[in-house]
Amino acid sequence: MKAVVVNPPNAGVEVRDVPSEPPSQGKVLIRTRLNGLCGTDRGIVSGKLTFSRPPLGYNYLILGHETLGEVVEGNGRLRKGDLVVPVVRRGCGSCLNCNLGRQDFCETGNFTEIGIRGAHGTMREEFLDEERYLVKVPNSLGELGVLLEPLSNVVKALNEVEYVQRRMWWRCGDSTYSCMTAAVLGSGPIGLLFSLALKTMGFNVIVANRRPPSEVESEIVEGIDAKFVNTSEKVDIRPDLLVDTSGHPSAFIPVLPKMKKNGALILFGTTGNESYGMTAEDVTTLVENNILIVGSVNASKSDFEAGVNFLLNWKAKYSNLLEKLITKRVKVEEAPDVLTRKLPGEIKTVIEWK
Fold this sequence. Notes:
Keywords: Carbohydrate metabolism, Metal-binding, NAD, NADP, Nucleotide-binding, Oxidoreductase, Zinc. Residues 143-352 form the Glucose dehydrogenase C-terminal domain. The protein has two domains: 2-137, Quinone Oxidoreductase, Chain A, domain 1 (Alpha-Beta Complex), CATH 3.90.180; 153-295, 3-Layer(aba) Sandwich (Rossmann fold). Strands 3, 5, 6, 10, 11, 18 and 19 form a seven-stranded mixed β-sheet that branches. Strands 14-13-12-15-16-17 form a six-stranded parallel β-sheet, covered by helices on one side. A three-stranded antiparallel β-sheet has the order 2-1-4, with no helix packed on it. It has 354 residues and is α/β, with parallel strands linked by helices. Helix content is 25%, strand content 25%.
């Protein structure tokens, strides 16, 4: 069958035929419908993400972890024709968190991740998977289900912050977030999904980037009644919650002194190619103002399932606005091109499998 193949840690990507998986009792056969592309995929293709590795016994890795698939042969609660999204991380098998389904908090680091490290991904015509790793998506969501994997990471991060902020009363006098401001640094797919989720929670939302918004970004941000700011100009951001999706310390460190007391910072983005120092005064600001810093990665199956509810809510509330997050659709033969460069005006590019 046809697949998108890489050979980490070496750079490069190709579309070629690979053997189909042999039938396995208890596994579900899934036909891939859509794959989303993200910075992790491009980092693997460029050779910059050195932690990527093939499965044991293979000298190549099938790429792909953002997936919308259709069940071909069901098993258990899944039936032919059901739409599904696979959970990315698979547990190490030895730590308590992994054994309780929270492999996103693996204690050993010996987990695998489909299409990233130690396990083949889903950029192929079809694949087999265990039912416990598959999240059923309502057919009414259709192709919007391909947004579920990145959204699950957003859900997990926000759950973490809400949980830790129970250290005090962190809401308005009417028990909502309506008097609070969340600033999201970065207007890529993760940044916009954070913005949608925070707006749904009731925050006043600011989306920030070091450039003016694209036409699509403006339409989405305005459509959810948020505000876009260009930080290359002089702006005054004073958030209760700061979310960095850029991975650039130079983006979030200057905002720290402006954060409101008892606020929280979510660090989500990663780049690995910038050096930007903090001063002792910055540290004093964090200490004196009780600022919480949370680093977050990956998600559990429960986060995926909660993400389904967000998508259903947004599809009903924002009509076709959500579909604008998908800015480019390509055939599998075009995958090597779009995996080696970010397209102009891109938010989310997807590969269509026919």
